[in-house]
Amino acid sequence: MSKFFEVNVDQMSLWGTVLISMYSKCCSIEDACRVFNSLSTEDVVSWSALILGYLKCGQGEKALQLFAQMHREQVQANRVTFTGVINACASIASLEDGRHAHAQVIKQALNSDTLVGNSLIDMYTKCGSLDGACRVFNNMQMRTVVSWNTMIMCFVRYGQANKVLQLYKQMQLESIETSTFTFVGVLNACANAGALEEGKLIHANIIRCRFHLDITVANCLIDMYSKCGSIEDACRMFGKA
Hints:
Layout: H1 2-25, H2 29-38, H3 44-56, H4 60-72, H5 79-91, H6 95-107, H7 114-126, H8 130-139, H9 145-157, H10 161-173, H11 180-193, H12 196-208, H13 215-227, H14 231-240
Helix pairs in contact: 1-2, 1-3, 2-3, 3-4, 3-5, 4-5, 5-6, 5-7, 6-7, 7-8, 7-9, 8-9, 9-10, 9-11, 10-11, 11-12, 11-13, 13-14
């Protein structure tokens, strides 16, 4: 009987988590909370689902309060939990809470996780700590294209076009596959710095990679040429877009 009961408890927890996620996606956080509170046992999955629910509904502070409660009840967070918490810190620009979450990430040896690392870069960027973002990026053992793009957009945000271009060149040297977001970031940097020659070189790379067919990249090329004073090139791109 006890074994059968354990299976049912597990099933209840699973369906409870599904309901929490469903209500959160529908922005009905009150219903998500009611489901969470009705569970006989809350595991890390259900806690994480509600934290992400608060984040989805734009309630970053509530997400952090729930994380603090989770910590008090000695439920160990996982990579999904920390990703939600770090994104919550970013959403309310709370650098102090972000640093605290980062310390716990290191304590639980999750700092090598790429998903968590990408979230930390984004959090430090949005919280006004360029140094923090750079440290996380430089210490990452494995970087995906998302990691590189997040760091590129960090430098764009802080108006450091030279750093963006250096990072882009490093991506090429390390044969990192580029994406739409890579070129959007690099072209924005060229536009802001008025770096026409660099922009033209990147345009050539975009054509080689066939990203010139992407409407978002094409729009960024128009914007880059316009801001760099090359109206003829901007018009030519507009005619092709």
